[in-house]
Amino acid sequence: MTIGEAEPESGPGGARPLAPGLHFIATPIGAARDITLRALDILRAADVLAAEDTRTLRHLMEIHGIPLGGRPLVAYHDHNGEAARPRLLRALAEGRSVAYASEAGTPLVADPGFQLGRAAIAAGHPVLAAPGPSAVLAALTVSGLPTDRFLFAGFPPATASARRKFLAELAPVPATLVLYESPKRIHKTLEDMAVVLGDRQAAVCRELTKRFEEVSRGPLDLLAQEFGDRSVKGEIVVVVDRAPPVQAGPEDLEAALIAALGTMSVKEAAAAVAGQLGLPRRDVYQAALRLAEER
């Protein structure tokens, strides 16, 4: 601020005014001190507060000494989104700042804020994020599994048949898999994972950042046995290693090349099949040349 420049008018609770728009705030998944300083600033200054669980947000604000100060605190969750969304959009249209907080973790990740964000974008309002805690990233960090490529798959279906179909679709994905699961179903899910995904390495991360945090690592079949005999509580994230390289035999190579040569040149087919089967490109190219000459 230069000399002679007017001091900006204070916002709610004496906080500096917040730019109009929808501000998504990541909130702690366990330890209350994991919230960021920027998120606290937004909670102090926002004109309107919205939350998946207003009790959780109010408690978090009390812990950090942030008064509500007569500001609206709007519940926004899966069951009332259609009714609550117009009220929040009206506030944005009036040029006000709206802060939305998930119950725990990053908004829109297994959280009802998605439709609110889409509606705000469609109406031309600024949408901003204050990044912070995330159970997905915390679990990846402590799992000991590859993090260069990962897929968050959400919650598996509750029924066994649907769950196994769901896992079968994920099986060929060349990335570390991250899923959420209920403590009531974790043993069944691990059993199905062992059947469908095979003997992959995995980590079951429970109560991350909380007092009874626990990470169990090992092959899926052993984890299924371990959790089959246990009664557990708390939030659970399961991290599973990617599919191992395909061990292709001569028949697999020939079948893949014949299919590829139907629409590709020898060079293109060799490159595609080498990547698909995890085989040396030179060897696959030589096999492709032989097949092309025989046709």
Q: Any idea of the CATH class of the largest domain?
A: Alpha Beta
The parts where pLDDT drops under 50 for at least 5 residues are: 1-10
What string, H for helix and E for strand, traces the elements in order? EHEHEHEHEHEHEHEEHEHHH
Number of helices: 11
Estimate the strand proportion: 15-25%
Could you say what the CATH topology of the largest domain is called?
Answer: Cobalt-precorrin-4 Transmethylase, domain 1
Mean pLDDT reading = 90
Over all CA atoms, what is the radius of gyration? Answer: 25 Å
Structural class: alpha/beta
Biggest beta sheet attributes: 5 strands, parallel
Based on the coordinates given, report the CATH architecture of the largest domain. Answer: 3-Layer(aba) Sandwich
